[in-house]
Amino acid sequence: MHPPAAHHHPAGGASRRPSRLLIVEDEKRLAVSLARGLTAEGYAVDVVHDGREGLHRAGEGAYDLVILDIMLPGLNGYRVCAALRAAGHEVPILMLTAKDGEYDEAEGLDTGADDYLTKPFSYVVLVARVKALLRRRAQTAGASPVHVHGDLKVDTAARRVFLGEREVTLTAKEFAVLEQLVLRAGQVVSKAEILEHVWDFAYDGDPNIVEVYVSALRRKLSAGLIRTVRGAGYRLEDER
Questions:
Q1: Are 51 and 73 in contact (CB under 8 A)?
Q2: For the chain, N or C: smaller number of CB within 10 Å?
Q3: How many Cβ atoms from other residues are within 10 Å of residue 181's Cβ?
Q4: How far apart, in whole angstroms, are the C-alpha atoms of residue 22 and residue 19?
Q5: What is the pLDDT of residue 208?
Q6: C-alpha–C-alpha distance, residues 235 and 158, integer Å
Q7: Contacts by 191-196 with C-beta closer than 8 Å and gap 24+?
Q8: What are the TM regions of this chain, as residue ranges (predicted)?
Q9: Angle at the Cα of 71 (from 101 to 177), degrees rounded to 5?
Q10: DSSP of 102-143, one letter per residue?
Q11: For the packed helices 77-86 and 102-110, what is the interaxial angle rounded to 10 degrees?
Q12: Cα separation of 203 and 205, whole Å?
């Protein structure tokens, strides 16, 4: 995979520091190719080729996003991701793998990854995913981290959800869908908007994936909490 020649303005803008990315990938040619392309996009990029070194570097907290391969020497990507989340690090993580299948994706997301890309992938799609993850991070950075809606409390900083006194465990994607709804509680959020913010505009899979995650949220939270507005989208309701 060879990234195209970059003709983009720097990602960080002239007056802001560039976003710092860490690539943890043991395929050195791929890692170097990605680093060159993303540097040309305006990002500050560091590369390591070992899971333990990746965990150490990411744990320093200096990065805005981590691109993390799953099959790594020393410590695999699942364990690196889980260790970062257990230590309280909320840096967005985009997982890469040569594997394919829903089970692997579910495992990656359940360990706390924010997105998942299967090799071989389009460089353009990878850049779109990176930009989407950084955009979501920027959107939530200045906002209050705790949102209360009736009996529902969503802490976007700690990534914890409570319904009354009960804590509800969500996967990363379930949390991201709920976050979009709670940020606009009482308003209709379209399926396309959820796809763009949670999966990004380059997602070319089945758009009904949103319904799957909304159904999962209803099962885990409350059936009446998320209202389907036919032909328009979904709205977070106050059940009190």
A1: yes
A2: C
A3: 26
A4: 10
A5: 79
A6: 24
A7: 191/233, 191/234, 193/233, 194/233, 194/234, 196/132
A8: none
A9: 50
A10: HHHHHHHHHTT-SEEEESS--HHHHHHHHHHHHHHHHHHHSS
A11: 30
A12: 6
| Beta-sheet pairing, 115-118 with 146-149 | unpaired
CB atoms closer than 10 angstroms to residue 154: 25
| Weakly modelled stretches of the chain, pLDDT under 50 | 2-15, 101-103, 201
Strand partners, 189: 234
Q: What six digits make up the tokens of 109?
A: 């997301």
Rounded distance between C-alpha atoms, residue 225 and residue 174, angstroms: 14
pLDDT digits (tens, 9 = 90+) for 57-116: 999 878 999 999 988 998 999 899 989 988 888 889 998 887 554 445 555 556 778 888
Angle at alpha carbon of residue 147, lines to 146 and 149, rounded to 5°: 150
Q: Furthest-apart CA pair in the chain: how many Å?
A: 56
Supply the pLDDT for residue 5. Answer: 37
φ and ψ at residue 82, rounded to 5 degrees: -60, -40
The single-letter DSSP state of residue 224 is: T
pLDDT at 143: 55
Cis peptide bond upstream of 4, omega within 30: no
CB 17: neighbour CB atoms within 10 A?
9
Distances (CA, A) of 98 to 57, 70, 111, 116: 23, 8, 18, 11
Please name the amino acid found at residue 125.
Answer: V
Task: Round to whole Å and give the CA distance between 38 and 3.
Answer: 9
